[in-house]
Amino acid sequence: MRLLQTPHTRRQALFAGLAVVGALAGAATWKFHSSDAGHGTAGQALPEDVCVVAPPTPFDPAAGQRLEAPRAIPVDARCPVCGMYPARSPEWAAQAIFANGDAHFFDSPLSLFQYLANVGQYSAGRTAQELVARYVTDTETGEWIAAQTAMYVEGSSARGPMRAGNLPAFASAGAAQRFTGRRGGRVIAFDGVDPTLLERLAPGRSAAHRTHPSTQNSIF
């Protein structure tokens, strides 16, 4: 038996079809373009189907600076770990530079350490051995300082871009100690940031980072 379609039933079928297409489009948008999920709850892991679009920033020879020198943060640069925009919180920012001049910018020292612990996870085909420089922002002066010589404060009341303890950095142990007198926490060196600490500061986000930055996949 053949069912007759009235104008009303045809409209219903059309609307139903559009609803299905819209739902599928929404799912695709979430899967490929929801990088801003990094702006959510502090320490919350990104969903596995989220693709953070964070290409490296190439070196510009016309800038008149050494390839390995710290650079200004591009407004559109995104952190390859969480998807945030480091230029929006420069007082917490960090960066890492590869031997070919490519640079990645991070929203905080915490994200930089997560990146260093497993470079290949965030930059396919690359390793930590290719890095020629790593910098963090001095909390006191706002200047770039070498990440491996900086001192960090863990457990203070300071809250970074992800609204969690993001390891504020200092050029000297004295400056870091003065900070703990005001905000609490303890002073640790670069090598003191281990996988256990990363997991505690960002539960779930560091689950795959079981290699300490000073071991096999590292140049430290």
From TrEMBL:
<protein>
    <recommendedName>
        <fullName>Nitrous oxide reductase accessory protein NosL</fullName>
    </recommendedName>
</protein>
<dbReference type="Pfam" id="PF05573">
    <property type="entry name" value="NosL"/>
</dbReference>
<dbReference type="InterPro" id="IPR008719">
    <property type="entry name" value="N2O_reductase_NosL"/>
</dbReference>
